[in-house]
Amino acid sequence: MKKTLPFLLLIAFLAGCAGFELPDLTQFLATPTPTVLADTPTPQPTVTLIPTVDFFAVPTATPVTFTPGGEPFTTPQLPPTQTLVPLPTFSEEFINDMSKITFFEQNVGFRGVLFSAPTLYWGDGACTTRSIKMTVFVEDPARTDRVYMFLRLRDKQNTLNVSEWSAGAEMIKLEDGTFNYNIEPRHLRRYFYYKNAWIEYQFVSVNEKNEILGRTQLYDRILSLVKCGL
């Protein structure tokens, strides 16, 4: 503005002196109107939201509901397991199928059993008891025709080590109605495998038709078989 004022004064002076017509110079002095640009809104960027994932979340199982049709379901009750002790192998001469019969806990048809010694020895040595005399008394001597004795061994250290039953030894009948038998090591199956064992035994009585009249309980832990010198 300071530079324009002297210039205008000079023009006015010259115009007054020479009668010169002053041109319209105001157009040069007008301040140009600035061009107003249209206000175009700036487009905003599109923001895509990423769903938040909880990597520590524990999935919850959906419970399954089972509705049985008809009566409600109940767990069946199983009967208690019963362990039966089978009879020894009897001679097929007078007994057919006795596999499902168990040992009697009481004596039936017998009055008593006697033995001469509690220990039977085998092997070399000075041990004197080499046989045990067994005597049984029956309740009905007139009807009793024969009595059979069954024997087996059970190791005292390992009670699961049990020998097989003998086939059944027929006892000797006396005039007084008693029955006798002498047990020797050779009457016991595989006796040489047992150095210290129990002799388990049982008696069965029959009539003339080989029908069973009575039987005793299983006797165990009464008689012993021991190797001489132990």
Descriptive report:
With 230 residues, the protein is mainly beta. It has helices spanning 4-18, 26-29, and strands at 110-115, 119-122, 132-138, 146-155, 169-170, 172-173, 178-183, 196-206, 212-215, 219-227. Strands 2, 4, 5, 8, 9 and 10 form a 6-stranded mixed β-sheet that branches. The chain has a 4-stranded antiparallel β-sheet with strand order 1-3-7-6, with no helix packed on it. A hairpin with a 5-residue loop joins β8 (196-206) and β9. It is elongated, with a radius of gyration of 61 Å.
SSE order and pairing:
Blueprint: H1 4-18, H2 26-29, E1 110-115, E2 119-122, E3 132-138, E4 146-155, E5 169-170, E6 172-173, E7 178-183, E8 196-206, E9 212-215, E10 219-227
Parallel strand pairs: 2-10
Antiparallel strand pairs: 1-3, 3-7, 4-5, 4-8, 6-7, 8-9, 8-10
Question: What is the level 1 CATH name of the domain at 110-227?
Answer: Mainly Beta
Tell me the fraction of residues in β-strands, as a range.
Answer: 25-35%
Distance between the termini: 144 Å
User: Main beta sheet, described?
Assistant: 6 strands, mixed
Q: How much helix, percentage-wise, in residues?
A: under 10%
Q: What is the H/E order? A: HHEEEEEEEEEE
